[in-house]
Amino acid sequence: MSDSAAAPTPIQNATTRLAPTLAVCAAVLAMAAGSIGHLTRGFELWTFEDIRRDEVRRGELRAVPTSLVKADGAALNAFGDATPGDSAARPAVYVVDFIYTNCTSVCQTLGAEFYRMQEALRREGRNDVRLLSISIDPQRDTVPALRAYAALHRADGERWTISAPVQMAALHELTGALGVIAIPDGLGGYVHNGAIHVIDSSGIVLGIHDYEQWESALRQARGLWPSPLPLPQAGEGERASDAQVARSVEVPR
Questions:
Q1: What local confidence, expressed as pLDDT, does residue 19 receive?
Q2: Average pLDDT for residues 169-179, to the nearest whole number?
Q3: How far apart are the first and last CA of the chain?
């Protein structure tokens, strides 16, 4: 009498039925791991900011040409091939931050830091570096609002320009290209990147610096290590008086 094959157990039957599903899951997990590994540069970079700064090191992060309106109402075309309409000489590099004028925290700190960079450039007589603050809230940051922020922080309009994109679409295109995040906080403000960007006139991002590292951002923009002149100290005219701000937004009669 020949031995007959033992009947499959319920567990074996279930395993057989699940085998194709398990194979698909394993393939999906392998693909996901591969994608994550690629995006995080071999699992070395885990934050969005890390990835953004790695793109700078690779020369892959670039601003798109953007039409802006300045605090004086004039137009400015940044990061493109055209020479800015308000200048006879195209700047070699921009030092850029993203702000909104009714921000009471980091944007005011950036304003104080940009004033100090402005004064350093003024004392050196530099005209090849332009400081550029771009609003992430152009619907509310109209020309009067930009002008008030400029007056508050004593932006001279020559070395330091306060501006806003002409259209929301232009803002989204620029922030998307640079990986700048600006998310409404539900309280009338924004959660946004506070970094300082060093960008050449063609739009290539040369460096990204934390907002408290404004000295290194300025030095990179000038290509000078160290600075040839001492940098302005904190408190040197960083904020204008309320009366100055009020005068800056008066409507001529």
A1: 57
A2: 94
A3: 116
Count the Cβ atoms, other than its own, within 10 Å of residue 193: 22
Q: Which residues, in sequence order, are bridge partners of residue 223?
A: none
Return the percent helix, strand and coil in the chain, to nearest 5: 40, 20, 40
Backbone angles phi, psi at 17, to 5 degrees: -70, -35
Report the alpha-carbon distance of residue 94 to residue 204 in Å, rounded.
Answer: 10
- pTM given for the model: 0.71
The HSE-up count of residue 135 (CA atoms within 13 Å, CB side) is 30
What is the helix (H) or strand (E) element at residue 124, kind and residue range?
helix 106-124
Q: Which of 24-33, 61-70, 85-94, 221-230 has the highest mean pLDDT?
A: 61-70
CA-based R_g, the chain, Å: 26
Largest Cα span, the chain: 116
Q: How far is CA 105 from the centre of its chain?
A: 17
The HSE-up count of residue 156 (CA atoms within 13 Å, CB side) is 15
Q: What does the angle CA 242 – CA 246 – CA 250 come to, to the nearest 5 degrees?
A: 175
d(CA 68, CA 87): 14
Entry field: residues in the chain: 253
Contact at 8 Å (CB) between 238 and 116? yes
Q: How far is CA 185 from CA 181, 182, 246, 253, in A?
A: 12, 9, 28, 38
Distance CA 35, CA 13 (A): 34
